[in-house]
């Protein structure tokens, strides 16, 4: 079962290696605002929703600062482990939301207790996937690349299915950092979602043309609460 990944320490280590690769790619590319070099400036995060026994407390989020005077901007690369500022790991936000919306609901309930996700939090995630996610810059750009329209009322399960993932079948080797294959559907999906780990992709467009950053609760109470969990 795909849900086994939520408590699989090897899979978490594999995602950590993927994040290290993304960070190195970003470091090599340098500052996006000037020609400055990037210096490592990681910061601590205390994520929930994973195998507590193996997640160091806290874990470090890869991040960099430009070394040029007058710029000094921070660059935080995309990540497969984190989904924006959410406290919970991206794998939990994705897989528990998928399970909750389909026949795997009882499995989701059992896992909520294991990884410490309340029903209330799960409801917030569902609202985020169905009300906020479809309005993000990321989704507005990405949805056009599907051959046929994705059912937004059934997110995130509808994109999970499009990536060819099957909840009941976990490909061999996915939990092994050495054997894990980047082409397996859930890894591809986490990679596809990884721009959401960077704030600019979370900005939302609303019909009247305004844009709102859903990570600021004072500007948008509902979405802000969700961004925090
Ligand atoms: Zn710079």
How would a crystallographer describe the biggest sheet?
Answer: 3 strands, antiparallel
* SS-based class: mainly alpha
Number of domains: 1
Query: Could you tell me the radius of gyration in angstroms?
Result: 18 Å
Weakly predicted, low-confidence segments: 213-228
Task: Offer a concise description of the structure.
The protein is mostly helical and 229 residues long.
Explain how this protein is built:
With 229 residues, this protein is mostly helical. It has helices at 9-29, 90-100, 105-115, 119-132, 137-142, 157-162, 185-193, 221-227, and strands at residues 38-40, 43-45, 59-61, 64-66, 74-75, 204-205, 211-212. The chain has one domain. Helices cover 37% and strands 8% of the residues. Helix 2 (90-100) packs antiparallel against helix 3, helix 2 (90-100) packs across helix 4 and helix 4 (119-132) crosses helix 8 (221-227). The longest helix is centred in the N-terminal third of the chain and has 21 residues, at 9-29. It is globular and about 55 Å long. Zinc ion (ZN) is lined by residues 31, 33-34, 36, 66, 68, 71, 73. The site of zinc ion (ZN) has 8 residues, from loops.
